[in-house]
Amino acid sequence: EAQVTQNPRYLITVTGKKLTVTCSQNMNHEYMSWYRQDPGLGLRQIYYSMNVEVTDKGDVPEGYKVSRKEKRNFPLILESPSPNQTSLYFCASSLSSYSGANVLTFGAGSRLTVL
Amino acid sequence: QKEVEQNSGPLSVPEGAIASLNCTYSDRVSQSFFWYRQYSGKSPELIMSIYSNGDKEDGRFTAQLNKASQYVSLLIRDSQPSDSATYLCAVPRRIIQGAQKLVFGQGTRLTINP
Questions:
Q1: Which of A39, A33, A53, A36 shows the shortest CA–CA distance to A97?
Q2: d(CA A70, CA B75)
């Protein structure tokens, strides 16, 4: 089944404890992206990657890191989480970032709480 | 002006009526437009895409695009309680070398009342 898989789905952690949210897709998609969703603010892009080893900041990158060493994986790293990073996180991918092939498929989401 | 703007709602519509969801965008050269549906606690899923001015119909859903007015809408005919969800409008933003990334509106929460 074609899908985007995120883990963990739920996580409660404490301020400053490094964590990684994994994202993997099995569709051979070139483009991958991370979003956070907060009430009243919609989906905001954190980072995106147009292909392996090519990543760039989205609209809200502060406090996050990413890497794209393989095509299928795009982990989101919070080096020192803070309570304002409590949110619902979505990983998404598309065939490419060009018109006609940029329809996004989303993972199931990861709900993160930072105490 | 926000890049992609939607009324956040909530929009309440009686069962069987037409639900009308609206979205405006700021980039005049945008070429493709998407509507995603998101049930509470779930991830967004694509329900409609539209690339040309006019209407595009898919079952009970109709997407309407007016590039001159920078306006895209989604109509849901014969609304059902199962249509109750948040509807997200997404518009591409150019990045580099013709590549694009999707920018989302804040979403409109729709409730269909039996």
A1: A33
A2: 40
Note the pLDDT tens digit of each residue in B41-73: 899 999 999 998 999 999 999 999 999 999 999
CA distance B100 to B27: 12
Q: Residue B11: which of B65, B70, B84 has the closest Cα?
A: B84
- Say whether pLDDT at A101 is over 80: no
Compute the distance between CA of residue A45 and CA of residue A67 in angstroms, rounded to an integer: 15
Position A2 pLDDT exceeds 90: no
Number of H helices, E strands in chain A: 0, 11
In angstroms, the separation between the Cα of residue A28 and the nearest Cα of chain B is 18
For B19, residues 6+ apart whose C-beta sits below 8 A from its C-beta are: B11, B13, B75, B76, B79, B83, B110, B112
Q: Under an 8 A CB cutoff, do B95 and A97 touch?
A: yes
Q: Which chain B residues are within 8 Å of A108, Cβ to Cβ?
A: 42-43
B100: contact with A, CB 8 A cutoff: yes
pLDDT surpassing 90 at residue A103:
no
Q: Which of A42, A102, A108 sits opposite B100 (nearest CB)?
A: A102
Peptide bond before A8: cis, by omega within 30 degrees of 0?
yes
Handedness of CA A84, A88, A94, A98 (dihedral sign): negative
Instruction: Write the CB contacts of B47 (distance below 8 Å, at least 6 apart in sequence).
Output: B35, B36, B37, B58, B61, B74
Torsion sign, CA atoms B22, B35, A35, B91:
negative
- CA of A18, closest CA in chain B: separation in Å? 25
